[in-house]
């Protein structure tokens, strides 16, 4: 399979795991040293473990992903690294209340053997022109 298609499949697997609120499958898409920069947080998360702990706190407070749709995806291959950019429409529940989010995301994947794992995720809001 072509590397661009492999990255697209890795991204689709990540989005599907997130959309189904499958915690174990979602975090398995990231390397242990992955970093995360979310517009909703004051500080970046500097490891997958830091994000997993925050995710568990969110879930304890009633957070759940109800759906997530990816669109306008592009992939840029840079050797053993690939940059995946897309728009995400996410439906979440926080403390019993549903929210619709429109965001833009960059996920950096790094090839490890035959597998592409996400090593960085940057999520930002979509601004209207």
Automatic annotation (TrEMBL):
Q: Which residues form the signal peptide?
A: none
Origin: domain of life: Bacteria
Q: Which residue ranges does the record assign to the SnoaL-like domain?
A: 7-126
Q: Which residues form a coiled coil?
A: none
Q: Where are the transmembrane segments?
A: none
| Name listed for the protein in its UniProt record | SnoaL-like domain-containing protein
This chain's source organism reads: Pseudomonas reidholzensis
